[in-house]
Amino acid sequence: MFIRIEPSSSVPIYRQMIDQIRYQVAAGVLREGDKVPSVRELALKLAVNQNTILKVYNELCRENIFRIERGDGTYVAGGRQDMPARERQELVAGPLREAAVMAIQLGVSAEEAAEILKTEYGQILSQKQSQSKEQSDV
After folding, report:
1. 133, 22, 37: which is closest to 83 by C-alpha?
2. What separation in angstroms does the CA of 61 have from each of 27, 58, 73, 117, 125?
3. What is the model's pTM?
4. How does DSSP classify residue 37?
């Protein structure tokens, strides 16, 4: 499970986490039956308060995305919750629209903004891949 917290975001940390987990389930990255890290593990890994992780897990359980098996752990409950391509594109378009407005206001050209996006995308993908490699080496 790859989660990237943006501390400077106006979106609360627990909401960032819930959204990212939902997207991973919708994309099939997290599959039914996958065990997710314990509250303690994830809190340490992300440097987030355990109560925040607990709030996320409880909310995802209420939404039937996660299920808790007492004494065994937390698992992805539902199968892939398909999200149509159009809906995925709309979700991505919102923050990109905000970034475009900011770029225009700061005088950053479309080419420069595209290069920034490409760089950020590459760095985050690299983080995700190295995290996946670390987890598979364990």
Report:
1. 22
2. 19, 5, 12, 34, 28
3. 0.69
4. P
